[in-house]
Specification:
SH3 type barrels, toxin-antitoxin system, 5 helices, PemK-like, PemK-like protein, single chain, DNA binding, alpha+beta, 7 strands, 7-stranded antiparallel beta sheet, globular, Plasmid_toxin/cell-grow_inhib
Length: 235
């Protein structure tokens, strides 16, 4: 649909209703169930976690992020091959001020099943290593052990049993992915709002002390140069 020039509040309300109705039709008729579910989740998060809180957001309440940190971020629902959803990202800013509302990251992914480090496309991606987030892995293992005890102490009909089982499944999936090995998708470097950061936002969070090695950061710098500037730097 084409939106006419919006001159009044009533014009805005009418057009917004039409846009939202068209969006609903597209979600229900043109997307498969998984896509529709993910987009619906994202629209709710976008409204509840981001739009409603944007004016009150204060980046100075977060920790100071350093080059080589890894953060867990919500990249949203995107199109095509753009990375989206909850992702780990590598911070590459040389000096990101605590007062800055944005940060530049490189999205990370885990090795796929049966994928080896030598299988990745090294024109666009860089293998970072196996199980590099040791503190996060230890945190997840401890949480899973705790949930196992909670599950043992409850019956299958208890609401707490169901909730603990679901949370355990999520943690186990994340743990298995972290142990597969991490890949930096250098070609998808982007600057995002710090509102998208889920973790770490406090100094005690499990990701807060991780810094990628200087050698790997230099390799990433070289790949950025090749991809976007056609040059390399000495390591």
């Amino acid at each position: 649909m084409e939106i006419k020039e919006l001159k009044t509040q009533q014009d805005l309300e009418n057009s917004l209703t039409q846009v939202l109705n068209e969006l609903k039709k597209t979600i229900l008729n043109d997307l498969d169930f998984k896509q529709a579910k993910l987009l619906t989740y994202w629209l709710n998060d976008w409204n509840e976690k981001f739009l409603k809180n944007e004016k009150q957001f204060d980046p100075k309440k977060l920790i100071k992020y350093r080059r080589g940190n890894i953060v867990s971020v919500h990249l949203g629902y995107n199109i095509g091959s753009e990375q989206g959803g909850l992702h780990y990202g590598l911070v590459i800013d040389n000096n990101n001020e605590k007062s800055s509302k944005v940060i530049t990251i490189i999205p990370l992914r885990s090795l796929k099943d049966n994928e080896k480090p030598e299988d990745i496309d090294d024109r666009f991606e860089l293998y970072l290593g196996d199980a590099i987030l040791t503190d996060k892995i230890k945190f997840l293992e401890n949480q899973i052990a705790y949930l196992d005890e909670q599950i043992k102490q409850s019956t299958i009909k208890d609401k707490s049993h169901i909730l603990c089982s679901r949370k355990r499944d999520r943690y186990m999936k994340e743990l298995n992915n972290l142990k597969k090995g991490s890949v930096a998708i250098v070609s998808q470097i982007r600057t995002i709002s710090k509102m998208r950061i889920y973790e770490p936002i406090k100094a005690y969070h499990s990701l807060s002390n991780f810094i990628l090695s200087t050698d790997k950061l230099n390799e990433i710098d070289n790949m950025i140069k090749k991809l976007f500037l056609g040059k390399t730097i000495d390591t």
